[in-house]
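Reply to dn_fold:

You asked what the input looked like. This is it:
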Amino acid sequence: MKLIRMLCTLLAASILAACSDGGTPESPPVGDAGPGIPAGTYAVDKSHTYLTFSYLHQGLSFPLLRIGGIDGELELDPAALEKTQVSIVADAASIKTNTAFFDKELTSPKFFNAVKFPHIAYVADSYEAINESEGALSGQVTIRGITKPLILAVKINGAMVNPITSKPVIGLSASGYVQRSDFGLDRFIPAVADRVDLRIEVEFEQGSNDESTPAAQLARAITAGTE
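and this is what came back:
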């Protein structure tokens, strides 16, 4: 696939750059057939992952809010990208608005009800490539215990071997939108828009860890209604 060739090219470029001074790269090519991104599990790099959302406020501005506590995993097979799986959870109580009072309001029963529904979950099981670096990730998002379809437009920003950890890493940008009324978040409509636009910046590093695997399992349990 063109997308596989792109990932391989990006990784090869990073290795060549490391060798440009005549030395030996700390992170050798990975894979069975030359440089490439190996199949397997990739954990969210929490220090380089961001989820923001915005909406039109009274026709005047688009506030930019942020959610933290993001964790989970990517299951990747470069030979079958259409089977890509993503399982992510975010902490509903971590919403930041730049206003302490509004932070508290959003996590209250009036909005996200973070005590009763502490997690927002997203699980995707298919990816459709549009071109070499872009595609659509199809999945389900669960907010306030309500699960709805969510398709994210994904851009593959790059792939390389992390020179610090010597592990393959992948960086993605994703965007999409939800109608907040679908999740019982209908206060102040239409003065405050129903549509909420999502923006995600995420890096994944090869291998699971003690936090990413439980998070991925929790995401799937939430969307399946078994948590």
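The chain has three helices and ten strands.
Hope that clears it up.
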